[in-house]
Design a protein that fits this description.
It comes from Peredibacter starrii. One of its GO terms (molecular function) is GTPase activity. The protein is an alpha/beta fold. Helix 11 links the parallel strand 16 and strand 17. Helix 11 runs parallel beside helix 14 and helix 12 runs parallel beside helix 13. The longest helix is centred in the last third of the chain and has 21 residues. The structure holds guanosine-5'-diphosphate. The site of guanosine-5'-diphosphate has 16 residues, from helix 4.
């Protein structure tokens, strides 16, 4: 509590070009700036996701050890995702490992040549969708399963969309090749229409004919995955505090919350104090997919963790913190933040860039309309170029104003500013940090990201002319 009157506060903040109302939610950075006006300091006890994201984008990983690729299987229902995962687990893991798999933890690893491949054992879209929403990419390679007797189906198309969005390499497993009605060429044709041109037809996509029933072609599939992984040269830093992501989570009688974490970087040690989404605890025990107890788990290792207070959600991020008290503080903060957001977003109505023209037209005020933009870019040069170009697009009826932006990821503050000023956010080679994405969803702020300047400029032009087709 600063103990200052709201009007005086609002006025000083207004000098910073910000309009705040009594119940508005403000991000940490902004809070820091405001507090500084009153000689206060704001302590950020949450994780600096912005810094993490910016660091991730530019980090040179070539000196780190190789890590296992993470593979997920997608495809239409009944095309054989579960059968394929079951076959590989039973026939390929058990063969190489004493004891085989005794525990179903949501992930397992297979040895192929000198490499280990880690499969996420949870087919289906829900978990991935949750992870994607949080801006986290868990998977390095996707195996797209298509039944040879059925061909491309709605969820096949949906999976392709996911794969393209996530920009992950795909290997097509043409399954049920044992069936008399199998027609792998028809599958290839169907997928070619969706941009997956087979290598043998001059394209870049690997296709492998398999049968999850007889095991035919499975070794070829595993080798294709291993080769792809080798090309990708995935490396990660095993040193330092672990970061990970929740793959699966449930309550087990007598054991409490049981959570499978995929460690993504650093090393998770038994006994670490951890924060996972909105819950925390101590990693009391770590168990791998063979049922073996581990003392520590490095990058790309899936482990079942006991010791969390509550059940987190798939896609939640794990971080290691100093002690349990700090963990609790962070969790309390996150919950309070979420509640504050929920309270302020009741009347949030999504207005997209596509709707801008319509809104501007319906607005009966005679004054000139302003399209307010917040632009984030990866380098200063392109930011300047975009800013100058879009501001030039204004015409006699509408002007374009870049109200904020610069180099870096799209932050909470950007979203709040957009919400308060009915502006739109455009990212060029920059995405929103996880929390910003969440706030944008709750406040109905439209964020568009681009990797081609022309497309960005074109969208702004079309929005001004009312010609941008809404994507629904
Ligand atoms: P999911 O919904 O994609 O996980 O598909 P499932 O793995 O549950 O398989 C759906 C059905 O197809 C089951 O009855 C499987 O036994 C059958 N199936 C899966 N793979 C094959 C295969 O390679 N050949 C044959 N003949 N049947 C298969």
């Amino acid at each position: 509590k600063l103990s200052v009157r709201f009007e005086s506060f609002a006025n000083r903040v207004l000098e910073m070009n910000l309009l705040v109302r009594p119940d508005d939610y403000i991000g940490v950075k902004l809070a820091g700036e405001i507090a500084a006006l009153y000689n206060y300091r704001v302590e950020d006890v949450a994780f600096n996701e912005e810094a993490v994201l910016n660091k991730k984008a530019g980090e040179d990983k070539s000196a780190y050890p190789v890590r296992n690729p993470i593979i997920t299987i997608m495809g239409h229902v009944d095309h054989g995702k579960t059968s394929l995962l079951d076959y590989i687990r039973k026939e390929k893991v058990a063969a190489g490992e004493a004891g085989g798999i005794t525990q179903h933890i949501g992930a397992y690893s297979v040895k192929v040549k000198d490499a280990m491949l880690t499969f996420l054992d949870t087919p289906g879209h829900a978990a991935f969708a949750a992870m994607r929403q949080r801006g986290a990419n868990v998977t390095d390679i996707v195996v797209l399963v298509v039944a040879a007797d059925d061909g491309v189906m709605p969820q096949t198309v949906e999976s392709i969309r996911f794969i393209k969005n996530a920009e992950v390499p795909v290997i097509v497993a043409v399954n049920k090749i044992d069936k008399p009605a199998a027609n792998p060429d028809k599958v290839k044709q169907g997928l070619t229409e969706h941009g997956l041109l087979p290598e043998e037809w001059g394209g870049e996509t690997q296709y492998v004919n398999v049968s999850a029933l007889t095991g035919q072609g499975i070794d070829d599939l595993l080798e294709a995955i291993q080769l792809q992984a080798e090309i990708m040269e995935l490396r990660e830093n095993p040193k330092g505090a672990a970061e990970g992501i929740v793959i699966e989570s449930k309550i087990e009688v007598g054991r409490g919350p049981v959570t499978t974490i995929l460690v993504q970087k650093g090393t998770l040690n038994k006994g670490d104090s951890i924060v996972v989404g909105e819950t925390s605890g101590r990693a009391r025990s770590l168990m791998d997919y063979t049922g073996k107890m581990l003392n520590s788990a490095g990058p790309s290792t899936p482990v079942q963790v006991l010791g969390l207070e509550n059940v987190p959600t798939p896609g939640d991020i794990l971080n290691v913190v100093k002690n349990e008290r700090e963990a609790q503080k962070i969790v309390d903060n996150r919950i309070a933040e979420r509640k504050a957001l929920a309270n302020t977003s009741v009347e949030a109505k999504k207005v997209s860039l596509e709707d801008f023209f319509a809104t501007a037209q319906n607005n009966s005020e005679a004054e000139k309309k302003v399209l307010k933009l917040i632009i984030r870019s990866d380098v200063q040069g392109s930011y300047e170029a975009i800013k100058t170009s879009v501001e030039r697009l204004g015409n006699s009826e509408v002007s374009v104003e870049v109200i904020s932006g610069g180099v870096g990821a799209i932050t909470d503050n950007d979203v709040n500013l957009a919400a308060n000023s009915q502006g739109f956010i455009l990212g060029f080679n920059m995405r929103p940090v996880t929390t910003a994405r969440r706030i944008a969803e709750e406040k109905g702020v439209d964020i568009k990201t681009y990797s081609i300047i022309y497309e960005l400029i074109n969208d702004v032009t079309l929005a001004l002319e009312g010609m941008l087709t809404p994507e629904r």
